[in-house]
Structure formats: structure tokens, C-alpha cells
Amino acid sequence: MVARELIGWTLRRGAVAGIIVETEAYADDAASHFNTRKPSAGALMGSTTGRAYVYSIYGLHLCLNVTADARGPGAVLLRALEPVDGLDVLRKRRGQVPDRDLCRGPGRLAQALGVDLSLNGDSFRAHFELEPPRARPEVLSTPRIGISRATDLPWRFVLAGSPHVSGRRTMSPTG
DNA sequence: ATATCGATGCTCT
DNA sequence: GAGCATCGATATT
Fold it and tell me: Which of A82, A105, A110, A143 makes the best surface tag, with the fewest CB within 10 Å?
């Protein structure tokens, strides 16, 4: 699955870069915009590869996806990065938040990268650059977050042990 | 530390 | 008119 293989890659946009530490896969399942937003998103997810799919959610936030076909419709939602370059730009765009939260969560990530709706449908490579990981990262899979359908599918992928993944922290601090 | 809740606009029915 | 692939602030332990 493409979403899994993207973990550990470095995503660059201009002076800003971060390691992809969290993704989710959407295909032809009940939670996917391929089904729930069929007229607008369906065509993009169903018949393109390597394009940006950007949408607004809850009227306030944007989310960034890459369309990718794995013998069927699909897209990968980029949920979190570990910032590695252009921290000053990220802080400027995100405001006064802890560095850990600069790109932790899909809405934050989109804001930190300066993503806007005009990118929707463009070639992903026209706006972003991807560098492969040096070593093979340890990847965990979990159910997806923030959806109410098809919650049983383990299509969320995270870099093991990364403090930059989104979601509530349930672990003790002494680690 | 966790739990709850409101904001706000786009898309589909 | 309803429902979101969310975030940040507030209230409570």
C-alpha cells in the first residue's frame, strides 16, 4: 500500500521540509471521499495518480492528499510531519505553538506548508519534492482517525515511536 | 493529564 | 438542510 511506503520520506516545499510520520489510505471504502464526495473527488481519486487532492473540512481547515492508484481508486492523506527544515517559516505560518505541533495533524500540516485550494488537481511534483528515507523505517498500522464509517480498517500508518504523530497521547511521560 | 464543545464553509441530497 | 478524513479553548481530574 502506497500510504505505508510514504512513511519516512522527506517532503519538501520550497524552504520547508519534514519527514512524513503519519498517513492514511483511502480507497473504495465507506469512509472514502471516492464514495462520499463522488462528483468532485471521485474523478480525481478514481482516475489520476500523483496529483494533489486538497479539500476544506469543517469550514476551517485544509487537508492535503496525493492521489495514488493501487489497482483501484485511492488517495493518501498526509497527516503529520516531523519538521526538519525551514522551522522559522513554519513558526511564522503556524503562530506561537510548540515545535512539536507545527505539522502534527492534517489541518496543521496543510497550514504549515502553505497549502491552498488552488493546488487541487495539480501534479503533486509541481509543488512538492520527495526524498527517500535512508534506512527502512519501522511502521505501525492502526485504524483511521476522525471518521465514523469503516473504522475497522487499519489504514493509518505511523512511524514507530515518533512524538510528532497526531492523536491523543495515552502514555506516561518518562519515556 | 483527559473530556467536551463550538467554530465555519463546502459538497451532496 | 445535514454532515463532515479538524483544531483550539475551556472545564474538570
Answer: A143
Q: For residue A126, what is the DSSP state?
A: G
The residue count for chain A = 175
- Helices and strands in chain A: count of H runs, count of E runs: 5, 8
Q: Are A33 and A44 in contact (CB under 8 A)?
A: no
Quote the CA–CA distance of A155 and A144 in Å, as a whole number.
Answer: 6
- Nucleotide closest to residue A172 (CA–C1'): B1
The answer to whether A156 CB sits below 7 Å from nucleic acid chain C is no
Our measurement of the distance from residue A147's CA atom to the centroid of its chain's CA atoms, rounded to an integer in Å, reads 15
Q: From the CA of A118 to the C1' of C5: give the distance in Å.
A: 19
pLDDT in tens, A101-111: 999 999 999 99
Rounded distance in angstroms from the CA atom of residue A165 to the C1' atom of nucleotide B3: 20
**Widest CA span in chain A:** 49
Residues A12, A22: Cα–Cα separation, whole Å: 16
A24 Cβ contacts chain C strand, under 7 Å: yes
| Nucleotide closest to residue A61 (CA–C1') | C6
Cβ contact A62 with chain B strand, < 7 A: no
Q: How many CA atoms lie within 13 A of A69 on its CB side?
A: 11
